[in-house]
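Changelog note: in this version the structure field was regenerated for every chain. One regenerated record is shown below for reference.
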Amino acid sequence: MAWSRTRRAPRSTLRATALLLLVGTTLVALVNASPTMTTAKAANAAPVPILITNADKLLGYVAAKDFLAHFGASAFPTVLRTDDAQHVLDTETAAKVPIYQVHCTVSDETSAYAALVRDLGCTTHQIEPKASSSELAQAWSSVLSAIPRLRGIVYVPDVGPDAGKQARVALSAAANRAIAPELHHVVVWSRHGTGGAGTADLKAFQWYAAVERAARLTLRGDQAPSFTLLRLSFALERFLDMAMDIQDYGALRLPLGEDGGILSPISLHDATWASHNLFEAAESGAVTKEPFKQVMTLTLDYHVSARDLAASASEALELDVGYIPVSREEAIDIFSSLENFTPRLVTTMLDVLECATRGPEAGCNTLAPVEDMQALLPGRKVKPPVWFWKKYANLFEPGGGE
């Protein structure tokens, strides 16, 4: 198949919404198609309540979707029992119950992402991010108090200039035993390279560093829940937001230079599994012992360039996908033209990709320690990029987002 290189008309909000709903439809189908990868509790055990933040942003949404797919209600659909004429006799639930009862925070209950996570089985709770600190504190207190026996939080930050404040208020409430008395462990999703000298001048890494400082400041002391700073490399799911541009140009247009930079990208599928394993390690008490550490890193176990990513997309999609190097200024125009790219997301993408051009000394391009990978994903390997392209193939095919 060949890609059309004709530039389409400017996108409308309707097209962006259509892509979003297509992503949701695809993910719903994937949820119901993955029973072989599911772990479950015994039939007499109650699901453990957990909370995933910012589920109406792409990364939080994918986290919620994958937790529900592999460990939540979506993994165990009700079975219809019928007679020989296919008349429904009754329903029979699965013999096992989900591991988790998943709750999600969203900034807008009316958004398409919020509707999608509710359809997948997540109970949503609204947190207005532009509220004052006192209003935020009250909102977080109300949300956490409304989840009986809350045991774990996956804190997925919406990084930006206020990310440190948002994390400080949320995690202060989480550390308060009067608000969340049974909260046991918090997994904070951060960025590989955070805190290093090679990224100190990049705003996005400053924002992630502020989130990490907030976690260390609030989640301390014998009474606070334990926590893990899970530093993730570039998430391949960011290409979902770029799907229409990739369709339009038949290429990855990225500011990574002629050689395509140095990346070790992951799918958030593996970040979700790592978070689950951290929760289990916390329950057993192992999370405070080696090989677990308070800061852990998850990356692909080898390096790739943007040209390698384009080649893996070509293989998976059976299309000719190229790589077009662009300048930072051109990348700003590209990202800003895409409906789902907020100004803070544009900055984050630019800075993460900038780090990929700086070489290993920048700190965000080193591979995760082997012991981290083995502890976070016991018996598993990080999914390669070709797996990601195949998983979301219909979104990248010509017309896939129409």
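Spot check on this record: The radius of gyration is 21 Å. The longest strand covers residues 100-106.
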